[in-house]
Specification:
Pfam families: RRM_1 (PF00076). InterPro entries: Nucleotide-bd_a/b_plait_sf, RBD_domain_sf, RRM_dom. Keywords: RNA-binding. The protein has a domain at 78-150: RRM (RNA recognition motif) domain (Alpha-Beta Plaits). 43% of the residues lie in helices and 17% in strands. The protein is built from 4 helices and 8 strands. The chain has helices at 2-59, 61-75, 90-97, 129-134; strands at 78-82, 103-110, 116-124, 140-141, 144-145, 147-150, 183-184, 191-192. The strands form 3 sheets. A 4-stranded antiparallel β-sheet has the order 2-3-1-6. Strands 4-5 form a two-stranded antiparallel ribbon.
């Protein structure tokens, strides 16, 4: 009897060893998956921190206020020049305003094709030069009379509202719409009457 019990003990020990060997690969897989999840979580945290940093840099009130103050300071030393000839160069504009003060920069606005729009901005080093430049309003450059104004600072988020010009034919041709009350007659003076359906006489 004692010998049988010893055999049972030995068999149970062998089963435990085989179970440990079978569970070892599962533990390794779990460790690998846990490591992958930790790496993904670290990558997500890094991306989130980067996005928050970029958003904070854009929406930082102090940075926006400083940038706006810098623009206002530059605009206080600048003038708007309208009706500039398309063939005029920045050097010629600078020479035209050099008697007012030290010209720091001349910017001729262009469209997306690189063609000038017909106006420019002149930035001086001294704020007092703006008053001298305003005296050159209606002066002539390249045969054109310039329009010189003090440059205004654009406020972020504010747009100039320009109402659309009303059209007397608005809505004409749509369902349920009606033509204008009258048309001008192309064959004489006066107003042509409204269009009417012709009357039909006789039996239908």
């Amino acid at each position: 009897m004692e010998q049988a019990e010893e055999q049972d003990v030995d068999m149970a020990s062998a089963a435990d060893i085989n179970g440990d060997d079978a569970a070892a690969p599962d533990v390794e897989d779990m460790r690998k998956r846990l490591k992958e999840m930790e790496d993904e979580a670290a990558a997500l945290r890094e991306m989130q921190a980067k996005v928050e940093k970029e958003m904070g840099a854009v929406q930082d009130p102090s940075a926006v206020a400083a940038d706006q103050a810098n623009k206002e300071e530059i605009d206080s030393r600048s003038v708007f020049v309208g009706n500039v000839d398309y063939a005029c160069t920045p050097e010629e504009v600078q020479q035209h305003f050099q008697s007012c003060g030290t010209v720091n920069r001349v910017t001729i606005r262009t469209n997306k094709y690189g063609q000038p729009k017909g106006y420019a901005y002149v930035e001086f080093l001294e704020p007092d030069a703006v008053q001298e430049a305003l005296r050159l309003n209606e002066s002539v450059l390249h045969g054109r009379q310039l329009k010189v104004l003090a440059k205004r600072t654009n406020i972020p988020g504010m747009k100039v509202f320009r109402p659309r010009r009303p059209s007397p034919y608005a809505g004409y041709g749509l369902r349920g719409a009606y033509p204008p009350p009258y048309f001008y007659s192309p064959y004489g003076y006066g107003k042509a009457p409204r269009f009417r359906m012709p009357m039909r006489y006789g039996p239908y």
